[in-house]
Design brief:
The complex is a heterodimer of chains A (142) and B (183). Chain A is of the alpha/beta class. Chain A has a single domain, classed as Rossmann fold. Helix content of chain A is 38%, strand content 15%. Chain A has 5 helices and 5 strands, in the order H-E-H-E-E-H-E-H-E-H. Chain A is globular, with a radius of gyration of 14 Å. With 183 residues, chain B is α/β, with parallel strands linked by helices. Chain B has one domain: Beta Polymerase, domain 2 (2-Layer Sandwich). Chain B is 21% helix and 26% strand. Chain B is built from 4 helices and 7 strands. In chain B, the strands form 2 sheets. Chain B has a 5-stranded mixed β-sheet with strand order 1-2-5-4-3. A two-stranded parallel ribbon of chain B has the order 6-7. In chain B, a hairpin with a 4-residue loop joins strand 3 and strand 4. The chains are: A alpha/beta (142), B alpha/beta (183).
Chain lengths: 142, 183
């Protein structure tokens, strides 16, 4: 499995899923794709469909309605796949921890590989997180 | 018509229905009105004065449930909020009723647990009231009489009946919910 993943990580295609975030993390993800931060130098491309993706980026505190959608999307990703939780909401629900509509954090719904904290995380932090993920998977493969 | 004419007209027409009239600022007026006359007041504002229905706000105040219907009168630059106060269901034995001191506790003539606050729906008058009334219904448990479609709007389908998250006495109902950060 890890050999497969190492091959994929030469050009990981990412799919961006917002589970009810305030759009701030989403804008930072878009920032990463702009020429200024140019995440494409790692071969990353935004995939239009989850069925084409290798990495799932999750932002936002999964609420009761989007929890079901997160599960359904995770079932559709071609395995092996990696999940990156971006932003405080996706990590621990941030200020929405006591909300009636956010019962569990994202990592209790699907397995999460990398946590990138921040509200929102800077594009540099997102890039650093992704680079660490790639390093981790490569180390596992050896 | 000037601002004074409009307000005089409105006050004259609903003299028996207005409970309180607050002239807050040149752009803002609050009118507390009897819950039974909300439909004719809204119809008058909407049809005769040509007001635009902005949005409605529902809130659970200490002693009553409250709905504010916000209307904009654009030609005189005025935001008029119709306020209705509805009695709220309470339990005599609940700690919330006794916690706030004698001033805050509702009348102690026995609980009215099965009581559902009700008001006439404005959705038959203008379509814009449809969704916001559905939202107030699911979040605060106010029943809108004559609403064409009183389904849930925002909450998930497995949300239990009779649990209203924006009520002051809302309690955690989901045993699977995790409320700590695990650190």
């Amino acid at each position: 499995m890890s050999v497969k993943l190492t091959a994929l990580l030469k050009s990981p295609w990412v799919f961006h899923l917002s589970t009810g975030s305030c759009n701030n993390c989403d804008i930072e993800i878009l920032d990463c794709l702009t020429p200024r931060f140019d995440i494409e130098r790692f071969g990353m491309l935004l995939a239009g469909s989850i069925r084409h993706a290798d990495v799932l980026l999750v932002t936002g505190s999964a609420n009761r309605k989007s929890m079901e959608r997160v599960k359904r999307l995770y079932e559709q990703v071609p395995k092996p796949c990696l999940v990156v939780a971006i932003g405080e909401c996706a990590l621990s629900r941030g200020m929405f921890i006591n909300s009636y509509n956010c019962p569990v954090p994202v990592d209790k719904i699907i397995p999460v590989d990398v946590y990138i904290p921040g509200c929102p995380p800077r594009p540099e932090a997102i890039i650093a997180g992704i680079v660490k993920l790639i390093g981790k998977v490569k180390a596992q493969a050896q | 018509m000037t601002r004074e004419d409009v307000l005089k007209d409105f006050k004259g027409k609903f003299a028996g229905d207005i409970l309180e009239f607050t002239d807050k600022s040149p752009q803002r007026v609050y009118v507390e009105i009897k819950p039974g006359s909300i439909k004719k007041a809204a119809l008058f504002l909407f049809k005769d004065l040509g007001a635009r229905f902005n949005i409605a706000t529902g809130l659970d105040a200490r002693r009553h449930l409250e709905i504010l219907y916000h209307f904009t009168l654009e030609d005189i630059n005025l935001l008029l909020s119709l306020r209705v106060k509805l009695p709220k269901p309470f339990k005599t034995s609940s700690p919330a009723a006794t916690g706030g001191g004698p001033m805050d506790s509702p009348p102690t003539t026995g609980g009215n647990d099965g009581f559902v606050p009700e008001i006439d729906s404005l959705a038959p008058l203008f379509e814009a009231a449809n969704w916001v009334e559905r939202e107030i219904h699911e979040l605060l448990g106010i029943n809108f009489r004559g609403h064409p479609d009183m389904r849930k709007l925002l909450l998930s389908d497995d949300w239990p009946e009779g649990v209203y998250p924006l009520r002051r006495d809302y309690k955690e109902w989901d045993p699977k919910a995790i409320r700590d950060r695990g650190v």
